[in-house]
Design brief:
- Strands 3-6-7-9-10-11-12-13 form an eight-stranded antiparallel barrel. A two-stranded antiparallel ribbon has the order 1-2.
- The chain has one domain: Lipocalin (Beta Barrel), CATH 2.40.128.110.
- The radius of gyration is 18 Å and the shape is elongated.
- By secondary structure, it is mainly beta.
- Strand 9 and strand 10 form a beta hairpin.
Length: 192
């Protein structure tokens, strides 16, 4: 391993990762979500199987992200609920195996970045914006460059035909429309 490796660069006054193509490290990444339940609390869950690529360009605005999530890997810590989420009422995983994201633009937003992209689910593609924060970079003991970032955003599940719900006698519904996304990711590329 090289004694001195530059892991980041400064563009303007913002620290960024070195340019390169990074694979998302699923064993060090969390793809989670929250959604309102019964109008009074939130259900949290995650997807346990996914893959993706982050391309950091010389010009940060030319960077890109693609990701694919295995919908069968949903985990909300309740097997009955997870089975219902896989059913035709929600994801219909017999017919729809994946949710995918492909970025379309990257824009500076102070010390963070807005990453616009298209989410495809259930035969529908709709735009979503994620707010991304670069968390840092390091070289691991196996001579790979690793970067960390967090991302958050939201989407209206009904836009994708995931519209099952039930009205409550007291007003409101069982499941909220807006799903908040929470991602903490690590991505890796070999040093050359």
């Amino acid at each position: 391993m090289t004694d001195t490796v530059t892991t980041t660069r400064t563009v303007g006054s913002t620290e960024l990762p070195k340019p390169g193509t990074y694979a998302i490290d699923a064993s060090h990444t969390h793809v989670g979500f929250t959604v309102r339940h019964l109008m009074v609390s939130k259900v949290r869950g995650q997807f346990e199987k996914f893959e993706g690529t982050v391309v950091i360009a010389e010009d940060p605005a030319d960077s890109s992200v693609t990701a694919t999530i295995d919908l069968d890997s949903i985990n909300t810590n309740d097997e009955g609920r997870d089975g219902h989420l896989r059913s035709g009422d929600f994801f219909n995983t017999d017919a729809n195996k994946h949710l995918s994201f492909a970025s379309t633009a990257v824009r500076s937003n102070g010390s963070k970045w807005d990453v616009d992209g298209d989410v495809s689910l259930n035969g529908v593609t709709s735009p979503v914006t994620l707010t991304v924060e670069f968390e840092g970079a390091t070289v691991d003991p196996w001579n790979n460059l690793r970067i960390g970032f967090s991302a958050s955003g939201g989407l209206n599940r009904e836009e994708f035909g995931v519209s099952w719900n039930q009205a409550l006698e007291t007003g409101g519904v069982v499941v909220g429309k807006v799903v908040k996304l929470e991602i903490d990711a690590e991505a890796v590329t070999p040093l050359t």
